[in-house]
Design a protein that fits this description.
The protein is of the alpha/beta class. The protein has a domain at 2-142: Hexapeptide repeat proteins (UDP N-Acetylglucosamine Acyltransferase, domain 1). The protein has three helices and 20 strands. Strands 1, 2, 4, 6, 8, 9, 11, 12, 14, 15, 17 and 18 form a twelve-stranded parallel beta sheet that branches. It has an eight-stranded mixed beta sheet with strand order 3-5-7-10-13-16-19-20. The longest helix is centred in the C-terminal third of the chain and has 24 residues, at 145-168. It is globular and about 50 Å long. Pfam families: Hexapep. It comes from Sediminibacterium goheungense. This is Phenylacetic acid degradation protein.
Length: 202
């Protein structure tokens, strides 16, 4: 659902995938290979929202601002399910964990990681490679090379997803019985990506 607001019409690169149940309104610019999941609300009515190449905004996220503010997600920013970004700047290759809240005028430096359920108060500024957790959120340590490598690989899956969605995604009727299969979904997914806990054990 893409909507004009006053004179502003969203600008969305053709390689991006915006789920039909997401809502993009007004002064919004979305770059290449961006994924926006169902239930996301990206509302550029009072200010501008810029989502750079290779970002993902997952299911039920909200991006908004106070009047006159620009929200920017720099390249490869990864916004987890249910997160809220309000008037903030998210640096390149950052990860914002699920159901986190990032308040007004917050600036995350490049390659920061914000833990799930964290709440960052307005006007906080974090240097690059900060690991940030809690409510109110604080930096607890530096993001390691190992952590950012894991994050980057996860984001690469989302950068491939828009093309796959354009190619394979379609409405369908559900099956009524489970089909025979020779390999499990779990086994297939493990070849693509390992969770953080799994990588730490291996």
């Amino acid at each position: 659902m893409i909507y004009q607001f006053k004179e502003h019409i969203p600008v969305i690169h053709e390689t991006a995938f915006i789920h039909p149940q997401a809502v993009v309104t007004g002064n919004v610019i979305i770059g290449k290979h961006v994924y926006v999941g169902p239930g996301a609300a990206i509302r550029g009515d009072w200010g501008q929202i810029i989502i750079e190449n290779g970002c993902n905004v997952q299911e039920n996220c909200t991006i908004h601002m106070f009047p006159g503010i620009t929200v920017r997600l720099h390249e490869a920013a990864h916004i987890g399910h249910g997160a809220i970004i309000h008037g903030a700047t998210i640096g390149r290759n950052c990860l914002v964990g699920m159901n986190s809240v990032i308040m007004d005028n917050v600036v995350l430096g490049d390659e920061c990681i914000v833990g799930a359920l964290s709440m960052i108060k307005a006007d906080e500024i974090f240097e690059p490679r900060s690991l940030i957790v809690g409510n109110p959120a604080k930096k607890i340590k530096e993001v390691s090379d190992e952590m950012i490598s894991w994050k980057t690989k996860g984001t690469e899956l989302y950068q491939q997803l828009p093309t796959e969605m354009h190619t394979y995604w379609k409405a369908c009727e559900p099956l009524r019985i489970l089909p025979d299969t020779t390999s499990s979904t779990e086994e297939n997914s493990q070849t693509l990506y390992k969770t953080w806990n799994t990588t730490r054990k291996s």
